[in-house]
């Protein structure tokens, strides 16, 4: 057993009665059982006014019907999981979820993403992605191609991949990855992706550059820095290795995850500002869209 557990006592799982949210719910329930955490299910009723029509407001009977529908939707929840049901009215779904996660002091938010092509892009751009940009608690994204899981299963993330770019956000993610790997006696891989500037690899190049020496130096330095990040005590509770590869970050993360049959990817994201748009438009966005396993997003700042 691990020396310490990741502190997950309150899990929030928004649902919309879709297959997507049912998929996420199963993972949320299993994690709640694993950590003996309290599970809160949230439904956000959108009450937006139109030009000529005022917003529709819920009365008490409406709320009771929605709660009953939520209970039926959550029939997979085992009796040993403490669960509560809440309905909120809001104009913007993502704002309501973020506010509630903060007010409820959620330790983990569990979200699904819708499935294919354009609609998936729309969903990521309008709800899930907006939540990830602002929510403070760690967020588990369950993509449509993540394996199905029984709600009464014992979740054990046996193979965890944590991409590291040595930023504060990736180091915050590493702390969560190590704690979860210790808890599960898992195999944890720290991955760093180097990228040689395209200008150095194109012909003709006017400067005499020894690319092989640059690559070797970059790999050696990255491996040394990764090894320094691993607490010695962590090796007593989980198996830790490192990998340094060259290429586009999101492609190599996905490739390594597939090759290692990863159960969980743990990634750090930066705080708010212009960098968010750049980040979610590239690495994080691409990994979530194409991942075949859950992705835990740890936000820094």
Structure characterization notes:
With 301 residues, this protein is of the alpha/beta class. The protein has two domains: 10-142, HUPs (Rossmann fold); 159-299, 3-Layer(aba) Sandwich (Rossmann fold). It is 42% helix and 21% strand. The chain is built from ten helices and ten strands. Helix 3 runs parallel beside helix 4 (117-134) and helix 8 runs parallel beside helix 10. The longest helix is centred in the last third of the chain and has 19 residues, at 211-229. The radius of gyration is 21 Å and the shape is elongated. The two termini are 32 Å apart.
Please identify, by name, the CATH architecture of the largest domain.
3-Layer(aba) Sandwich
The total domain count is 2
Shape: elongated
In CATH's first tier, which class of the largest domain applies?
Alpha Beta
Tally of separate helices: 10
Number of strands: 10
N- to C-terminal distance: 32 Å
**Portion of residues in helices?**
40-55%
| Strand proportion | 15-25%
CATH topology of the largest domain: Rossmann fold
Mean pLDDT: 83
**What is the structural class?**
alpha/beta
Primary descriptors:
about 300 residues; alpha/beta; Rossmann fold; 2 domains; 10 strands; about 40% helix; about 20% strand
Task: Please outline what is shown here.
With 301 residues, the protein is of the alpha/beta class.
Give a topology summary.
Elements (H helix, E strand, L loop, with lengths): L9 E5 L4 H17 L2 E9 L13 H14 L9 E8 L2 H11 L4 E5 L4 H18 L4 E4 L16 E5 L4 H17 L2 E8 L3 H4 L9 H19 L9 E8 L2 H11 L4 E6 L4 H7 L2 H8 L4 E5 L2
Parallel strand pairs: 1-2, 1-4, 2-3, 4-5, 6-7, 6-9, 7-8, 9-10
Antiparallel strand pairs: 5-10
């Amino acid at each position: 057993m691990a020396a310490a557990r990741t502190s997950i006592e309150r899990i929030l799982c928004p649902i919309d009665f879709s297959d997507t949210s049912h998929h996420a719910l199963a993972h949320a329930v299993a994690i709640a059982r694993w950590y003996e955490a309290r599970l809160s299910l949230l439904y956000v009723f959108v009450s937006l006014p139109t030009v000529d029509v005022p917003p529709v407001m819920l009365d008490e009977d409406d709320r009771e019907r929605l709660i009953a529908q939520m209970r039926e939707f959550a029939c997979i929840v085992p009796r040993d999981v403490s669960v509560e049901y809440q309905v909120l009215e809001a104009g913007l779904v993502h704002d309501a979820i973020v506010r509630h996660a903060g007010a409820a002091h959620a330790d983990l938010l569990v979200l699904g993403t819708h499935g294919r092509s354009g609609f998936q892009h729309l969903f990521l751009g309008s709800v899930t992605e907006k939540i990830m940009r602002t929510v403070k608690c760690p967020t588990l994204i369950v993509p449509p191609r993540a394996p199905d899981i029984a709600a009464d299963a014992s979740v054990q993330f046996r193979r965890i991949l944590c991409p590291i770019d040595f930023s504060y956000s990736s180091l915050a993610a590493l702390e969560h990855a190590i704690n979860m790997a210790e808890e599960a006696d898992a195999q944890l891989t720290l991955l760093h992706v180097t990228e040689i500037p395209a200008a150095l690899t194109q012909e003709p190049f006017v400067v005499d550059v020894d690319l092989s020496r640059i690559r070797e130096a970059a790999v050696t330095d990255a491996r040394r820095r990764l090894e320094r990040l691993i607490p010695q005590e962590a090796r007593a509770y989980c198996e830790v290795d490192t990998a340094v590869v060259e290429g586009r970050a999101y492609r190599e993360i996905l490739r390594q995850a597939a090759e290692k049959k990863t159960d969980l990817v743990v990634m750090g994201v930066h705080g708010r500002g212009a960098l968010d748009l750049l980040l979610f438009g590239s690495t994080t966005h691409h990994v979530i869209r194409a991942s075949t396993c859950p992705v835990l997003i740890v936000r820094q700042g």
